[in-house]
Predict the structure.
Amino acid sequence: MANTYYQVYAAELGATAAILGMISAISTIVISLSRIPGGYIADRYGRKKIVVTMTFVIALTYLIYAFAPSWEWILVGAVIANFSLIYQPALLAIRADSVPPEKRGVSFAFMDFLSSLVCLPAPLIAAYLVATYGLIEGMRIVYLTVTILGITAAVIRMFLKETLAKERRESYETVRKIGSDFKREYVNALKFIFKKLPGLAIFYMLFNFAFMGILPFLAYYAIYFLGLSNETWGYIYFLSQIVYLLVLLPVGFFIDKIGRRKMLMTIVGLTVFGALVYGLAPRASGDTVLYVFAGLSMIMVSNVAFFTSASALEADIVPREKRGRTSAVLGLVSSFSAAAGQSLAGVVYEDVSPRFPFFVAVAVLLAAFAIVLLLIREPEKKEL
């Protein structure tokens, strides 16, 4: 619900395209930095505690969004919320730990399918609330709902099972010289990435620069530049989610059958198509809705397919005891490149043309395709 109109809500509170890019970039940097201690905690002390605790924190953070009087408070909420995602490496590690190698693609896709199925009516509910109460008041109701549901999710996560073996975990009291240990663990993680995952790291940089660069402006561009109404955007978002759901499970099947590498190349192709169609969409035309629907659908499909494919490939290559830290470092690389893309896109949107960020994304994505083709290989033996 909140994602449907977040960009427009921030704009109504005074945010320009450049400010939206700045908020997204700062948020991305915060989450990337939080992943570093998060990955260490996940591999040293276990996954479950940090996931449960910080889910409660992030749920309460959305009260800031609900009562924000200006865009500056949206920035404050975004910083706190993204720091709270310090639990992300632990959650990704739980996913990877819990699924056998030969079923990772379809299993990850099925997990995402279930959560997305529940979310299917969310854009329609958001559109109804905005149409009934106005954009600002409607979104305040949305964010209050997010808080309640987030607390519920945190309670449910209390029933997660710890997946890091007990003999690998250490208590906070028994660990000494945490600083040197922390540094040593991440130096080892960096060495592992340089040796085993250089192509994947470069691909993450390029893909996230392009994809995350345009993501903060999809609704903003469609409503303020192309001329769609708030209600029309809500309906398009809803229909795009249906396409996303229809594709999600087959994507997981193909990831396991044809391989992660081929799927990554397909994903880049879909993203190029989506960004190109979105950038070329006519303004205030009878075809505008079709262009936006086609572009948004491809972008949403490629997003989930990227996350599922990349997660499966990472899990195949990275040993269980290194997954938290490796995920954190790769996340750091991805996030800094994404932040650069978001900052650049916001400035280019205002100073050059609203269409230009989408064309820049296409050029960078073609480079990402070349990296997959030349540098990424799947392991002969998958890690458990």
